[in-house]
Amino acid sequence: LILDAGHGYAAGGDVYFDVRSLPSYGELSNQQPDAMQASADAGAKRDPLDFALWKGAKPGEPSWNTPWGPGRPGWHLECSAMATKYLGPEFDIHGGGRDLRFPHHENELAQSASVGDGFARYWLHHGMINTGGTKMSKSLGNSTYISDILETASPQALRYYLVAPHYRSDTEWGQGDLAEAAAAYGRIENFLTRARERCGAPAADAVLPADFSSAMDDDLSTPAAVGVIHDTVRAGNAALADGNEEVARSSYDAVAAMSQVLGLWPEDFEGAGGHSELKRVIDQTMPALLAARQSARERKDFAESDRIRDALAAAGVVVE
């Protein structure tokens, strides 16, 4: 189809896209072809800026027979083909790292648009997660894997850590930042726990606060949206302390609804990550420890009662 439309040509067993045949080429990355730096190895290309749609077969690689000889699709064509197969010729959102905007996403869009497909209506290019000032990359061997993180951290903290910054901003990975995320999420979770004890289940039809919706409508501004959650948590905690049931209830419903939008609802994490086994152990041992402390108090063995209380306090558990 691309060849029939006059946007491609075959040369030396490969098939190339003629970049200059598409006037809109470069709009996604806000570039002009005349200002682009051409590859040093033009090979059989008519123009060094052209890119491969189909590559001639090489030993050890999969290949398919074509009118131009055996070969395989190029990287860009693979992605357009998958998107079209599963999402159709036009779909809403195409995501990806900022480093893929050019040339990969530009080429995806070019080859799809050249056959009349609308392709993606919106492109969301996210920033990088860095470590030591360098982008995490499989090729550099400096990646940190989620399965390893969840050995020592909760999935709630990781989710909060990733959703709190804006998706287009770069993020520096660090255990200290993850600890801060855990503390911040803990404030949300503690309020939801206290409010549930007082109010029961949250309303299923709760309306999202206007400030939260406005933030999310503003290019998915999750930092502002998370800020609205914390403001509502503070108002809800004050209402619980003052016995203001109406404000406590409305705050609870709002925080629950916002948390569900961002994937921060506590029930979403039940059984998730490396902490599910830890939670099971705690759930089974905590009643025994509390019963032992109560038994010591009843027989007036206050030294043993205090020892259990202090051991729990050292683990971050407060007995009231």
pLDDT < 50 runs, ≥5 residues: none
Tell me roughly what share of residues is in helical segments: 40-55%
Largest sheet: 4 strands, antiparallel
Strands side by side in the biggest sheet: 1-2-3-4
**Could you tell me the radius of gyration in angstroms?**
28 Å
Walk me through this protein's architecture:
This protein is α/β, with parallel strands linked by helices. It has 10 helices and 9 strands. The termini are far apart. The mean pLDDT is 91.
Quick take:
The protein is of the alpha/beta class and 320 residues long. It is built from ten helices and nine strands. It has a four-stranded antiparallel beta sheet. A three-stranded mixed beta sheet has the order 8-7-9, with no helix packed on it.
Write the layout of secondary structure elements.
Elements: E1 8-11, E2 14-17, E3 51-56, E4 71-73, H1 75-87, E5 90-97, H2 101-113, E6 119-126, E7 129-131, E8 134-135, H3 146-149, H4 155-163, E9 171-172, H5 175-199, H6 210-217, H7 222-242, H8 245-261, H9 275-298, H10 302-314
Helix pairs in contact: 1-2, 4-5, 5-7, 5-8, 6-7, 7-8, 9-10
Q: What keywords describe this structure?
A:
320 residues; 3-stranded mixed beta sheet; 4-stranded antiparallel beta sheet; 46% helix; 10 helices
